[in-house]
């Protein structure tokens, strides 16, 4: 081990094989290690047991309605950008049992899901996805209400960020101020160079983690290479939201603009954009009882503002058209979200662009509204 006191903010380098030791150490201390894995021709967030489970040698290409993985002649583990899913599915799972009651020997036994003792270590979180987790924190860990399931999982989670050196053409994190480099909110932040990972320590837990592995102080040469690569990465991100600060006013002062009819005519109300979005948080609860009458259960499931039933109220539906539902999604995501949570609900990850079957592009919708009204 090198001669250097480790502190929050310390920068070190590790051989790539040391990430394997880190994964092993995490698993030995009870963490479920989750990372990017190639599954069904996309990158998914899934359990990993070792370094070799990561998609080494893969790169990805994304465009409107398009995602492809390519195997290339390189040895890097974190080049391919995330696919449709995100860390959201672990902190706020698509289906969660809230409670159930079962009749046993003539009396009812109840189970209330207050918390779960899951301990996740998320390995390879992109800076935009870290920003998305911070946004969901504001939804589920509020002053007036704390969601016990989310907050427990979140408090137990360790986050190892990977800075983006190979962004997709659908990324626009630079407009939203969320990437391509993470500056805070992680336990460790990794920048993958050709032969080493440059590691920045972000928390006391991060300090303890690297005590388990071989490291060296980051050399000036590695720091310079990383900084040049980060700059190049930011320059590669050309997709933009023009004047992001003024987007809420733009959207909310043009609710009757004909652009909404046009996009409403293309949108299929399929809900894909909300399911893939790492910040969308709508849910509903389903109650079910078995036919024998001895088991009843309440389950929280993801919902979407694109579902007709989401806006059903006594006396009718307040958003009966696809146009009104698309407008609701976008004006909330990039407009009223700011009033509600103090920041935009979009982190610029680009997933809704890639996974929309109608090739609707959120950046184009906002920019074209600005063009049409200026
Ligand atoms: S709205 Fe689209 S680009 Fe923005 S965070 Fe959600 S999925 Fe990503
Ligand atoms: S914008 Fe695209 S992904 Fe979203 S509901 Fe409409 S068609 Fe589906």
Description:
The structure is a single chain. This protein has 13 helices and 16 strands. Helix 9 (259-266) crosses helix 11. 33% of the residues lie in helices and 24% in strands. With 374 residues, it is α+β, with helices and mostly antiparallel strands. Strands 3-2-8-9-10-11-1-12 form an eight-stranded mixed sheet, sandwiched between helices. A four-stranded antiparallel sheet has the order 7-6-14-13, with no helix packed on it. It binds iron/sulfur cluster (SF4) (2 copies). The site of one iron/sulfur cluster has 13 residues, from helix 12.
Bound molecules: iron/sulfur cluster
Ends: how far apart?
Answer: 60 Å
How many structural domains?
A: 2
Q: What structural category arises from helix and sheet content?
A: alpha+beta
- Largest sheet: spatial strand order: 3-2-8-9-10-11-1-12
Radius of gyration: 22 Å
Key terms:
alpha+beta, 16 strands, eight-stranded mixed sheet, binds iron/sulfur cluster, 2 domains, 374 residues, single chain, globular, 13 helices, four-stranded antiparallel sheet, 33% helix
Brief digest:
This protein is α+β, with helices and mostly antiparallel strands and 374 residues long. The chain contains 13 helices and 16 strands.
Explain the layout of strands and helices.
Blueprint: E1 11-15, H1 17-28, E2 32-39, E3 42-47, E4 58-63, E5 66-71, H2 88-91, E6 95-104, E7 107-112, E8 120-125, H3 127-140, H4 148-156, E9 158-162, H5 173-176, E10 188-192, E11 196-201, H6 204-210, E12 216-217, H7 220-236, H8 247-252, H9 259-266, H10 272-276, E13 283-289, E14 295-302, E15 312-313, E16 316-317, H11 322-341, H12 351-354, H13 362-373
Parallel strand pairs: 2-8, 8-9, 9-10
Antiparallel strand pairs: 1-11, 1-12, 2-3, 4-5, 6-7, 6-14, 10-11, 13-14, 15-16
Helix pairs in contact: 9-11
The protein binds iron/sulfur cluster (2 copies).
Residues 267-273, 306, 356-358, 360 line the site of one iron/sulfur cluster.
